[in-house]
Design goal:
Layout (H helix, E strand, L loop, with lengths): L7 E5 L2 E4 L1 E2 L1 H22 L5 H14 L7 E7 L14 E6 L4 E4 L8 H11 L6 H18 L6 E8 L3 E9 L22
Antiparallel strand pairs: 1-2, 2-4, 3-4, 4-5, 5-6, 7-8
Helix pairs in contact: 1-2, 3-4
């Protein structure tokens, strides 16, 4: 059994990041972000916000332009309001790339297979989706990217972020050992979920 590749970075209990690009580049940046966040928490007495983490990352990458870094990341998290971690705004998502570009939105895709994933997301995403529908759509989008792009890694990992639970992994699959019935051309989606 192959070890699961590290495409997700557990930044904190309330924040998760994806990694696309060079593994070494992403690893060092994750360590630096964790250090900055711990320092912030010690100085301010509260958790760092998703916007601040994405801004710190964008500033680091902007200052490192021309150094050959390969990074494309999405950072999603639930921010506190004052000292209250249970009542606050919905989760936020930011996209940051190796040029230092930082965007806030409600849907992103990163990595070499992102154009294939976005083709599915753009055509099938609705604002009123249930959690199960959103999970199934995420699985489908990643599956298409994995089968259409040789560099996408071959794993499907889906996480859900909520204010109540923080982030949790709800689906995982190694498509190299998945049954043929789960291939990209099959319209019936396998949405086997990880039990909480």
């Amino acid at each position: 059994m192959k070890p699961e590749p590290l495409h997700f970075a557990n930044l904190f209990s309330h924040m998760l990041g994806t990694m696309a690009g060079g593994a070494a580049d992403c690893s060092i940046l994750i360590r630096q972000l964790r250090s900055e966040a711990q320092l912030y928490e010690l100085q301010k007495g509260r958790r760092i916000s998703t916007a601040r983490v994405s801004s710190i990352l964008a500033n680091i990458l902007y200052a490192s332009r021309g150094m050959g870094l390969s990074v494309g990341t999405m950072i999603v998290g639930c921010d506190d309001v004052g000292n209250d971690s249970e009542n606050g705004p919905p989760p936020k998502i930011f996209y940051v790339d190796n040029s230092g570009m930082r965007l806030e939105g409600n849907m992103f895709s990163a990595g070499s297979g992102s154009t294939f994933a976005l083709a599915i997301l753009d055509t099938e995403y609705r604002h009123d989706m249930t959690e199960d529908e959103a999970i199934a759509l995420g699985i489908k989008a990643i599956r298409y990217a994995t089968f259409r792009d040789a560099f996408s890694g071959g794993f499907i990992n889906v996480y859900v972020m909520t204010r109540e639970t923080g982030w949790r992994k709800v689906f995982t699959q190694d498509v190299s050992v998945a049954p043929i019935a789960n291939n990209v051309n099959n319209n019936k989606q396998d949405t086997t979920r990880i039990q909480d």
